[in-house]
Amino acid sequence: MTINTPTIAIIGAGPGGLLAARVLQLGGVPVTVYDADMSLESRDQGGTLDLHADSGQIAIDDAHLTGEFAALARPEGQAHRLLDSRGTLLVEQTPGPDETAAPEIDRAQLRRMLAESLNPGTIRWGRRVRSVGDGIIIFEDGVTAVADLVIGADGAWSRVRAALTDAVPSYTGVTFVEAIFANVTETHPEIAALVGAGHMWANGDGRALVLQRNSGDVVRGYISMRAELDWLANAGIGMADGRGGVLDANGTETTDTERVRSELRRRFADFAPELLRIIDDSEGTLSNRPIFALPTPNTWVHQAGITLLGDAAHVMSPFGGNGVNLALLDGAELARAIVSAIDSGRPLDEAVRAYEGRMTLRGATAGQAANAAIVEHYAVGGPNIDSIPDFDEEARAWRDNAAAYRAAAR
User: Would 249 be classed as within a structural domain?
Assistant: First the structure.
């Protein structure tokens, strides 16, 4: 690179932003990543992710991290079990021992793997963005930074997106309450039996109890339901904060785990006792995670010097598992386009504009499917089990899509 190499700033050290930074550095392009977190370990990163052969795994390969990913991934985690509210097993899907169409990896492990692949000093922690405009990044403490290209990888509530569009995520009508079970084999053998090697869903009339096997003998649970956004406040547990949380009398975020547990027990009272262990035995604080999504397609008038990737561009419901996979693929594709433009002397903005066209279409297609799926799954009466895709068919489609993408992109 030369003194004319553009300065690149990525806002957000999530998987998509870190993957983009890695591919840029492999191409010799300097980049700085800014993140609001104080460190890599400053907050819980959430549960497990499945990386698809036609998206997330392509990005990992572009980042030259396939071996590192394989060492952490759990192919056995692709197993699925579907039960009804009485605990009756309806569907069980067990992938073969060599199946790698969508292996699982803990979100924290993926983030650490990507962060540690970057040059020392790439990530600037504790840098919360207030606004972005005209290549100037203004942080909450008043400090500024400048860049020729600002990439918004700062998630669902992106500050960078606000410079491009007024679009904001809206509540889907479904919320997930997070539970956790550590040392599950010995401490919670009944939970271990329910989840098996991968995932379990127990559905009942607009509600679902979900379990996901994580690494380190940990299982995360999700008590999910169609509910009003302010259901906690409406149950008298605190004052509504406008995003599904509650505040105490001083306006401070608060929680009352046992009262939340009691309210959940009431809402799921007709579920089988063995399933209600997910509510009763949780070791966590039963944090509320309402599901928000952007309208699809989410488009904006292109502006030179600024773009988006991942949830900042197209946050969607988690159904289909496409969120992190698209973020990784967005990051890889954008970074490759930037490197190619710089190497060939083509205008950088031309490459970014072309990327936005492809990314927006891809995000809209996946987002429409994901947002329709969450409505169907939490409809009165629950999902039609005949509509649940067979794992072998999904795996075949992911591999076919991967081959087509590589042929077109290379």
Answer: yes
137 strand-pairing partners: 132, 145
Tell me if 377 is assigned to some domain.
yes
pTM above 0.90, yes or no: yes
Reported as a single tens digit per residue, the pLDDT across 166-210 is 999 999 999 999 999 999 999 999 999 999 999 999 998 899 999
Of 154, 97, 103, 160, give the one whose Cα is nearest residue 134: 160
CATH, residue 349: 3.50.50.60
Residue 402 has pLDDT above 90, yes or no: no
Same domain flag for 254 and 340: no
In a domain, 3, yes or no: no
Residue 44 belongs to domain spanning:
8-72+106-169+294-409
**CA 251 to chain CA centroid, nearest Å:** 28
